[in-house]
Amino acid sequence: MFAFSPDGTLLATTDQGEGEITLWRVSDGAGLRVYDSPGSPVSDLAFSSNGDRLLSCDYALRVWPVEG
After folding, report:
1. Would you give per-residue pLDDT tens digits along the chain (68 residues)?
2. How far apart are CA 47 and CA 39, in angstroms?
3. What is the pLDDT of residue 32?
4. How far apart are CA 12 and CA 37, in angstroms?
5. Which of 51, 50, 48, 45 lies closest to 22 in space, CA to CA?
6. Strands of the 20-25 sheet, one edge to the other
7. Which of 4, 9, 38, 68 could serve as a FRET partner for 28 with CA atoms 20 to 30 Å apart?
8. DSSP letter string over 6-62?
9. For residues 41 and 31, what is the distance between their CA atoms, to the nearest angstrom?
10. Residues 2-65, CATH architecture
C-alpha cells in the first residue's frame, strides 16, 4: 500500500503485515519517519488535501501529523 502527498514530494508506504507506515522524501529516497499503527495491518493510506496529515485505515481511521 502506498500514497503520494498532493505535491508529490512525499511517499507513504506500509508493509501490510506489520502495521508500520514509513514516510519517504521522494527527491532522495530518505526515510523521514515511521508511524507505528497500534491496530491491525493497514489496509489504506491517503494524504489530506493540503498534505499536512496522513490518514491510515486498519480497523479504525487514524490521522497522523506530517512534519518535514
Report:
1. 899 999 999 999 998 667 789 999 999 999 999 998 777 788 899 999 999 999 999 888 999 999 75
2. 19
3. 95
4. 13
5. 45
6. 2-4, 10-14, 20-25, 30-36
7. 38
8. TTSSEEEEE-TTT-EEEEEETTTTEEEEEEE-SSS---EEEE-TTSSEEEEESSSEE
9. 20
10. Beta Barrel (2.40)
Decide: 56 and 36 in contact? Cβ < 8 Å: no
Please state, in angstroms and rounded to a whole number, the distance separating the CA atoms of residues 9 and 42.
22
Query: Domain ranges in the chain?
Result: 2-65
Q: Specify the amino acid at residue 68.
A: G
